[in-house]
# Entry
Amino acid sequence: MSGGSLRGTIQLEVAQILSHEHHAGNQHVLRVHAPRAARSAEPGSFAHITCDRSVPLRRPLSIMRADPVDGWLEFLYKPVGAGLARLADRVPGESLSVLAPIGRGFEFDASRPRIVAIGGGVGIPPMIFVAERLRGDPRFARPLVLMGSELPFPFDVCESEIDLPGMPRAATHCMLLLEQWGVPSRLASNAGLPGAYRGHVTELAREWLAAAGAAAVAETQLLACGPEPMLRAAAALARELDVPCQLALEEYMACGVGGCAGCTVRIETPDGPAMKRVCVDGPVFDSRAVYPG
Ligand SMILES: Cc1cc2nc3c(=O)[nH]c(=O)nc-3n(C[C@H](O)[C@H](O)[C@H](O)COP(=O)(O)OP(=O)(O)OC[C@H]3O[C@@H](n4cnc5c(N)ncnc54)[C@H](O)[C@@H]3O)c2cc1C
Ligand code: FES
# Structure
């Protein structure tokens, strides 16, 4: 399965807000009706959204869930500036202009059926999409989703009944929705959140992989999305264990569709370093290409 290039399928839709939940820590979950985008969204792809008439530029948000049958997309976001703050004021029944899905999503290598999906903060959404997409795929084990946050998690959590031998004892809780899907997940935080491993989410991943043993590690691939230090730590862990790792990057964007070069990052290619656009060449890249070591 491959996210591949999605440029040919980008849709522009006037998307009605179906629901808009507001959580502690200024975190918001938005669901919009965007049936054409919902049909072609892939884990790792994103939407470029007009937050409000008063906000000139669109803002990129990872697609957290896509329902091709009922035709909706769901996002989790935390405002850091004026654009997403205006978005948080919008109410169900109003409409947004949504350009989606954009970008190359994750590529899943069936020769490594154990997927560890690591999400930090607003990097959690693509990992929910990974879980939903892979939970019924017979080529893969159920992915393990590890989520880190210093704020209360913006979703229902519960004590997990899915036994994960080798998981640190403090990591008892999980995301309720993933548990209902039968997808194992665990939480990490430095903020002392109940049932969460105390530390960085990449340290939880490290402990889990150390306990899993060499044979399991040889079948593992890592996916990560989150703040830059977390991505660097995930890339370092992958290098150390010699496992493949894909990173979903979150750069500031203007056009969002490849036209302005405003989102370029330096990427190592077989022909040497090159400047790549996060919006359409990514946002998912191989960790060795982003952080060659
Ligand atoms: C592919 C992708 C997926 C993303 N997914 C999510 C997600 O799922 N959830 C989520 O919450 N966020 C996500 N983000 C991040 C989010 O789009 C940005 O944080 C966005 O800029 C926030 O918008 P804002 O209106 O809150 O803040 P902005 O108004 O954009 O400002 C944020 C801060 O950055 C500064 N800033 C703005 N533009 C620039 C620039 N060009 N260079 C330097 N500094 C700048 C501002 O001064 C301000 O301090 C994603 C980003 C990308 C690229
Ligand atoms: S944001 Fe314009 S090229 Fe990526």
Observations:
- Residues 253-256, 258-263, 277, 279 surround FE2/S2 (inorganic) cluster (ligand 2) (CB under 6 Å).
- The mean pLDDT is 94.
- The radius of gyration is 18 Å.
